[in-house]
Amino acid sequence: MSDQAQPRGQSSGTVGPRARARSGDPKGAGDRKSSALLTFDAVAQHCAVSVWTVRGWVDAGKLPVLRLPGRLVRVEPEALARFLERCQG
Fold first, then answer.
1. How many Å apart are CA 66 and CA 68, to the nearest integer?
2. Which CATH class is domain 36-88?
3. Is the pTM of this model over 0.70?
4. Exposed/middle/buried for residue 41 (C-beta within 10 Å: 0-12, 13-18, 19+)
5. Domain coordinates of the chain in residue numbers?
């Protein structure tokens, strides 16, 4: 590659860590907070319930979620911990 600067708006052909994290590449997302977010399936497995039960908790407003672009919905581990504490008494 030459020593000339890239024209404005042109990349050098490499993919930076932020782009990897947005694409779901674990090499780039390992140290990002978004990698700690839980899917409904992960919450269901952790609580030994069905995904539909988790959806019910969310729909009822009992379990807060983060709504991400692309219709993705995730649960913060801290929110799950608070929800489980409230359920246990």
1. 6
2. mainly alpha
3. no
4. exposed
5. 36-88
One-letter amino acid for residue 60 of the chain = A
Whole-number Å distance between alpha carbons of 89 and 86: 5
The SS3 of residue 75 is strand
The Cα–Cα gap between 34 and 44 comes to 19
Q: What is the pLDDT of residues 15-71, one digit of tens each?
A: 555 554 555 544 444 444 555 999 999 999 999 999 999 999 999 999 999 999 999
Amino acid at 1: M
- The Cα 55–Cα 78 span in angstroms is 18
DSSP class per residue in 17-69: HHHHHHHT-HHHHTTSGGGG-B-HHHHHHHHTS-HHHHHHHHHTTSS--EEET
The angle subtended at Cα 78 by Cα 45 and Cα 36, nearest 5°, is: 65
